[in-house]
Q: What sequence folds into this?
């Protein structure tokens, strides 16, 4: 909110805070919770005969506002966006996705040294997903389509996870994987840095370049910025275990609590 409106990421971060309380649960219970929460969302969607839709936020007056005016504007828009029943059930859907992702993360503890054939699993899941896509098109609007949509909800993220695990088995891609993993390990730092750079370039309180660049210039700059961040992240992690913002976040969420418990003992 202090840098930009955050879009869907604010909702993700709020739901993510709730996820922290669920991490200690057993894996099967997490999977059950993911399915149960998604069913709640589906029941609400069936009553509406449509999925919950987020309220459309007004575009921020980027080109003619001071920093303080933009912060006030974003605060009002975020409050309006999060105060509807549709907004709540959209968050319920996000929660179900995160719970399923938390369950899938447990797959990373499985043996990686070619003891499990991830490429074959990926091909199988993609084939099933293509079949369900065809069925969904043929049965569009029927009750069976609702069941297929639920299967797709499980299949699609499973394909993402399996694809990532497949990449880890390819020896030639180890350097590329290290590059992207470095960016991922410092994702919060990189996200905030991207926002600081982009808002300074395009907002009126910075260089005021909004709508003054060609699409190819925007794309080229975005790729260049990502590559620079990847290089800096790889270099940083050669000397540190985590990014600066990640370290600060970890201190306030884990280490400070651990110190308090130690003091109480």
A:
């Amino acid at each position: 909110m202090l840098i930009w409106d955050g879009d869907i990421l604010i909702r993700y971060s709020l739901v993510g805070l709730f996820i922290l309380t669920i991490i200690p649960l057993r894996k099967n219970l997490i999977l059950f919770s993911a399915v149960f929460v998604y069913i709640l969302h589906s029941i609400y969607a069936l009553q509406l005969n449509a999925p919950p839709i987020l309220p459309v936020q007004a575009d921020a007056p980027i080109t003619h506002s001071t920093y303080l005016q933009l912060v006030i504007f974003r605060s009002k828009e975020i409050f309006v966006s999060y105060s509807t029943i549709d907004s709540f059930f959209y968050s319920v859907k996000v929660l179900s996705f995160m719970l399923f992702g938390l369950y899938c993360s447990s797959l990373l503890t499985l043996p990686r040294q070619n003891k499990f054939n991830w490429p074959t699993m990926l091909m199988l899941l993609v084939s099933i997903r293509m079949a369900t896509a065809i069925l969904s098109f043929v049965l569009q609007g029927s009750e069976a389509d609702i069941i297929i949509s639920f299967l797709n909800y499980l299949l699609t993220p499973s394909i993402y996870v399996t694809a990532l695990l497949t990449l880890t088995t390819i020896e030639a891609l180890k350097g590329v994987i290290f590059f992207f993993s470095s960016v991922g390990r410092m994702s919060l730092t990189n996200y905030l840095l991207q926002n600081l750079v982009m808002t300074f370039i395009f907002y009126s309180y910075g260089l005021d370049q909004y709508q003054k660049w060609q699409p190819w210039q925007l794309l080229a700059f975005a790729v260049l910025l990502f590559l620079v961040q990847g290089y800096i992240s790889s270099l940083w992690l050669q000397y540190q275990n985590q990014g600066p913002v990640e370290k600060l976040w970890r201190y306030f969420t884990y280490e400070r609590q651990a110190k308090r418990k130690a003091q109480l003992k």
